[in-house]
Amino acid sequence: MAEAEEQETESLEESTDESEEEESEEEPKLKYERLSNGVTEILQKDAASCMTVHDKFLALGTHYGKVYLLDVQGNITQKFDVSPVKINQISLDESGEHMGVCSEDGKLLLFERSWMSRWKSSVLHEGEGNIRSVKWRGHLIAWANNMGVKIFDITSKQRITNVPRDDISLRPDMYPCSLCWKDSVTLIIGWGTSVKICSVKERHASEMRDLPSRYVEIGKPSRNVRRQKRIHFSKGKPKIMFVFREREYCARPRLDIIQPLSETCEEISSDALTVRGFQENECRDYHLEYSEGESLFYIVSPRDVVVAKERDQDDHIDWLLEKKKYEVVLILLSLKYLHTCNRGEKVSGFASLIREWPGDLYNNSVIVQAVRDHLKKDSQNRTLLKTLAELFSSDTAGVSDCRFFFFLFQKAVDMLLDNEDKISIKKVVEELEDRPELQHVYLHKLFKRDHHKGQRYHEKQISLYAEYDRSNLLPFLRDSTHCPLEKALEICQQRNFVEETVYLLSRMGNSRSALKMIMEELHDVDKAIEFAKEQDDGELWEDLILYSIDKPPFITGLLNNIGTHVDPILLIHRIKEGMEIPNLRDSLVKILQDYNLQILLREGCKKILVADSLSLLKKMHRTQMKGVLVDEENICESCLSPILPSDAAKPFSVLVFHCRHMFHKECLPGPSTNSPAQFCGICSAKHRGPGSAILEMKK
């Protein structure tokens, strides 16, 4: 059975493309396959009359009044015995929980999914003749019988309108009505050679009275020279109308894809389909359904269900190979995969190839440069550095790059440094005099371990760093305290090492020359501003302003960064009238924003300071307002007698300071007895912060 179905599928595709291949070399737009499994079993005993598609399942109606629910592979999941006569059409809501079924007996049945996935049915409409088509969208249901199309509003339980058919000469059983919802308020009606567009609109409250809350506005009908069978309106793409058309009796059906234009239509593709039993079928026996979720088209005939879908990239390549267009295939594949070749992710594979392939197969200098370019992005990639060392070992042209020696001789250098007691530093340096690149590797490793152990060679290392490892020269100059600055400055100036020269000049105290070199050699205003900030010297800012005053880009940089260190007014007043300065407005806005920010910060700090002062003042006031215990154990700090008299009836006067020192009033010296001392004499003499004489006891 499976082999027979496979052969039939192949014959379907071959017969579909046969005539097209004879006529032209144009690639088909769709590919086709039969829906098998349970569908094959059903159509051996029964005939398909209709079908509807949901994203989760399919519903198939038959001539014997059965409705089958199928999965997307065609396997049967449920079966309903709906009617003893043919099922005309099935319609599902968007959730797949409700299903409308109309049949030859004139009934419109509503199936609702209940608990445990069971379905219960009810009659929605009957008694007005044979219902041949039903479609619903949202709260609106449309169905068609021999007289016309009805639209029903489920929410209000009202029939909105009746759209009569135009050409009553066409037999409705031969040319049934086709319904399609474009959106929730637009219904497309295709009947014979006529296509109508109906728009459902809300009725104004003043017009309602006893009329339904909605009404239907029918657009001007369009005429088609061919009699269509089924219309579908696609979404998410240019509006395409899919039509079955009848050429002649017993002919193979053709599936046309038509692109509507402003004034006409363009035929995109036309495929002739060889379905089972097409010789016995008529136009009314075919149905077209569309699954939006999967972008699949289902062509339904009494003895066959064919699935059509858009061809993908793999299908396109297979077609090109079949046509022997190998160059086009190579171009497509290169576009798909070539961009992965530039990622540099297969570093280990690259290293293996360098070791395995003979050196005469490639240009060594080109490969060395490529590795160097990658190391600029990933300077610590050990695999690339080892590979670079291997390339250099076979080509002395790259010996000036010393990084690979760290990996070639790293273990040897570590062994020498770990055994200084057996092989001295002086001995190693002398032995490597003829190999300065290796000498540099050894001394660099020694300096990394201890900045002071090889101080006698620091002057020599300046030249070695400049020759073989400039990237580490500036860190060396910063970390070394034994490097002769004059010698280093001479070497850097000879080699025109600007950044190193700037550092040495600033370290030697010649900041103005360093700033001048930054501005004249590097032309980097940001670096000059950063240097002036580090030095924090007003004269440097003045030199920077004078140098920049006739250079608009420098003025822009200064305006953007000077505000936190120098008053911008000093710079703005010196700008010549009429000078064009790039981004001047943005720079001035930034200055004002920075100024406003400073004002806000100061106001915020002031509020915090005032709040803290007030809080501390209140706390001090509460503390000073507390009582002080005075008893027989306390003494006068002046006469050293008990502060309280032995005779409680005798009057006395005592002064207690906040420092807790107590005095008899008469023991305190003062200009008069009426104006006692305001400060504790003991605390004032010791500078401990005198207390105030605000507590006084009298009796």
UniProtKB/TrEMBL annotation:
Organism in which the protein naturally occurs: Leptonychotes weddellii (Weddell seal)
Gene name of the record: VPS41
Disordered: annotated span: 1-33
Entry protein name: Vacuolar protein sorting-associated protein 41 homolog
A Pfam match: TPR_Vps41
Residue ranges of every copy of the RING-type domain listed in the record: 636-684
GO cellular component term of the entry, any: HOPS complex
GO molecular function: zinc ion binding
Keywords: Metal-binding, Protein transport, Transport, Zinc, Zinc-finger
PROSITE patterns hit by this protein: CHCR, ZF_RING_2
Biased composition (Acidic residues): 1-26
GO biological process: cellular response to starvation; endosomal vesicle fusion; macroautophagy; protein targeting to vacuole
Start-end of each CHCR repeat: 413-557
Top-level taxon of origin: Eukaryota
